Amino acid sequence: METEQRFERLEFFADETKQRLTRIETRLEEMATKADLFALEARLIKWMIATAFAITTVMGGVAVAVAKLIH
User: Fold this and answer.
1) Pairwise CA distance, residues 23 & 16, whole Å
2) Are residues 39 and 26 part of one domain?
3) 42 and 27: one domain?
4) What is the pLDDT along the chain (71 residues), one digit of tens a residue?
5) Does the predicted TM-score (pTM) go above 0.70?
6) Does 19 share its domain with 42?
7) ∠ CA(71), CA(53), CA(40), 5° rounding?
């Protein structure tokens, strides 16, 4: 009787462990890789440089317009 109960508990533990491992594997597959993070970093840097250039260009245009209005 005791051996049978131990086997049942071990089988339950094995099933539970298998389910947990499946959930862990699913989570790991959804996580970003280092390559994904480096690509994102490159995109963000390019976006920041382009935004800085655009802001500088617009502010330069505003400065020229204001200078023309003053003179």
Assistant:
1) 11
2) no
3) no
4) 688 888 899 999 999 999 999 999 998 888 888 899 999 999 999 999 999 999 999 999 999 999 999 97
5) no
6) no
7) 165
